Amino acid sequence: MRDLDSLTSWNSQWSDLKVAVLGLGATGFSAADTLAELKADVLVIADSASDNRIEMANVIGVTLALGGSSEEQIAALSAHAPDIVIVSPGYPQDHPLLEWSRKSHVALWTEIELAWRLRDKTGTPAEWIAITGTNGKTTTAQLAAHILSTAGFRAGAVGNIGIPVLDAIRYPDGFDFLVVELSSFQLHGMPRTGVGAISPLASVCLNIADDHLDWHGSRAAYANAKATVYANTRIAAVYNRAVPSTLAMVEDADVIEGCRAIGFGLDTPGPSDFGIVSDLLADRAFGDDRHNVADELFTLDELRHNGLSAPHMIANVLAASALTRAAGVSIEALRAGVASFETDAHRNQLVLLSGGVSWVNDSKATNSHAASASLSAVDPVVWIVGGLLKGVDVAPLVQQHARRLKAAIVIGNDRLAILAAFERHAPQIPVFEVDSTDTKHVMPRAVEMAHGIATEGDTVLLAPAAASMDQFTSYADRGEKFAAAVRERVGGSDDDAIDASPTTPASD
User: Under 8 Å CB-to-CB from 495, ≥6 apart: which residues?
Assistant: First the structure.
C-alpha cells in the first residue's frame, strides 16, 4: 500500500499512483487534469458530462466511465483499484461509490486537500486565506483578493467561487495569496489534522444559518462542517460577533499557537475587534495602541458610493478588512481597495429604476438567511420568492418580514410550502403564483405581475430564498432572465427610467 503521507509536494512521486476522480464538473476536470499532468493513472467516473469536457478528458489521456448504474460504476472503480478517490463537491456521503471506498479502505480526498499538497508547484507556496459561511462568501472573497491586489500582492479568489484551487496552484506566475472560498460540501470532506489538512494564514466563518440540511442531515452537522475552516489557522481566526456560534467554533478549534481571535460586527468594537464607531468603520485589532485607540478605516457614506452600505455588505467589508489586515495590508491600501471595488452581478443589483420603482436582482440569495438580509434593506417590497428550498422551512422568513411586504409572487417547484407559510403567518399579504411549467415564461410572468402591483416608492426584489435548478440552469441564469424580463416589460415604459449595467451595484 502506498504511503500517502509522503505525497506533500508537486515533486513527490505521483507517477505510479492510481487515482479515481468522481465527477467531471469544473473541480472534477481540474483534478483529473492536474493528476494527468503528474502522470498518475486516472479514472474519471461521472453520471454525465458536457461534450466539451469529454473531449478535453480524452485529450489529456484519462480513462472515462460515464453513466451506468451504481453497480456498473462500482465495478469500474473496483477494477481500477485506486489508491485515492478524489470526490467532487456535492457527492452525498451515502453515495454507493463513497461507501465502497470506505469499505475498501481507499483514501477519500477533496480537491482542496490535493491542492494543498501540491501548492509548491511554482516555488514558494502562496499563503491561503480561507472563507466560509452561509452567505457573503463570494463577495468577501472577491473583496479580500481585490484589497490584496490593490496593495501590490499577486492575489486570486478561488475555490467555490468558480476557479478551482488546482488551476490556481498551477498558474505559471504563482500567487502571493489565494483567497479560498469553501462551501460546506468541500469542508465536510477535509481533514483537520495530518499532512493533508490546510493551515491558512487567516480564516473566517461569516455566519451560519439553515442551508443544505437535506445534504448534511442536520444543522449541527452543517455547522460542524463549517467549523473546519478554523483548523490550523496561524495568524487570525475571524468570527462574527453577532453570531455566537462562530465564536464557539473559534474557541473549539485547534489553531496554531499565537493565532488571535478577531471579532467583527456592526456594533462598537472592543480590543481585537473590527466594528463601527458613530459612522466610521474601525480597526481595534491591528493598531499600535488597540486597547485605547480605534484606527479609522472608512465612513458609511464612502461605502454608499459603491453599493456596500447595506448591513450585510458592511459585515462583509469588516470581515475582508480583518482578513487582509492580518495579511499585512496597510490601512491606506485597504481604503484604496474598498473604494475601487465593484460587486458582482446578481447580488443586490439594481436592474432598473422606473416610475419610482426599484427593480433589484438578488438571485444569489439562495437561502433564507441571504433573502432576509436583502429584505431587511428595503420597504415596502414586492417580493419574488421560490425555487428549490433544500429542506429549509421558509415560514420564519415570511413571518419576520411580513410587515414590509406589499405583495409576494411565488415561483418554483416548492411553491406549496411557501404558499402555506403565507397563509399561516401573513394572510393579509396578497400572494400571486406563477405556475407555468414552461420555464421560458416564468420570469416574464413574474415581472408582469410585479409591474401591475408596484407603485412609486416600492422595490420589486428577486430574493428567492431557494436554489434555482428547478427552473433555471443556475442562480446567474435566473438573475439574467429576471433582468431581461424587467428591461423588456418595464424599461421602455418611463422616459425617466434608469437602466443599470450588469456590473452596477445596487444603491442602498
Answer: none
